[in-house]
Known about the structure:
The chain is mainly alpha-helical. It has a domain at about 1-65 and about 105-125 and about 165-245: Orthogonal Bundle (Lysozyme), CATH 1.10.530. The protein has 11 helices and 3 strands. A 3-stranded antiparallel sheet has the order 1-3-2, with no helix packed on it. Helix 1 packs antiparallel against helix 2, helix 2 (about 35-65) packs across helix 5 (about 110-120) and helix 5 (about 110-120) crosses helix 10 (about 215-230). The longest helix is centred in the first third of the chain and has 32 residues, at about 35-65. It is globular.
Amino acid sequence: MKLFKILLLSAFLCTLSLANTSNKGFPEEYYKLHGQKAKDYFFNFLEKKVEIENLKTLKERDFILSLNGKKDLSETSKEYKELERLQKKYKVKNIYDYKTFLTRVDIIPTSLAIAQAATESAWGKSRFIRQANNIFGHWTYDKKIGMVPLRREAGKKHMVRIFPNLESSIAVYMRNLNRTGAYKSFRTNRAKMRKDGKFINGYILSEDMTKYSAIGYEYVKILKSIIRKYKLTELDKKFYEKTINKEK
């Protein structure tokens, strides 16, 4: 049954697969739009991208669930090697700590991802997204994959990370929320929603994003305003309805 669920998710992913964005930023057609048409394009475009990454995460989660808490896997088995890969990806100390795995390997609500993308990229029009595919404001100290911010203060060494495409930027953003200590409360509250059988609500979970930005709770207010104004939690509910039976 678990294998069937994993195969089902794989098929679901295939039906939604999109070619990686080779150009920098959004497709050129987006930048010709204005007003509500531009907003609608932004939401629809990113909803598909976020959904694909979330389905990949659910596939990983289903794999963990399929192991049924086993702690005696052969180290040469495919299952062990995959679990080891996920252990490194999500920074889980004990390879058989399934509780931590299930807390970390889970979706990022669409509403939250879109609100943060809008805020961090000036609705897809900032220099960082158009030159570096950086839609979530990620920094780096690696000169090989970074570009210097125009207004970087003297003495600072951080750079804006360059991504090969938007998909990789989204994937890193999700991994960041799923494993970094700053977002532990986000993961705890998300796990409670899952346990209670509720949809993963980005509006509520935005409360846990105070450490994402230097402006703290003012950042949360911005995210909530975007989610509320454009009714983005409807996208969270929509995804929940699509995947509600995947873990049963």
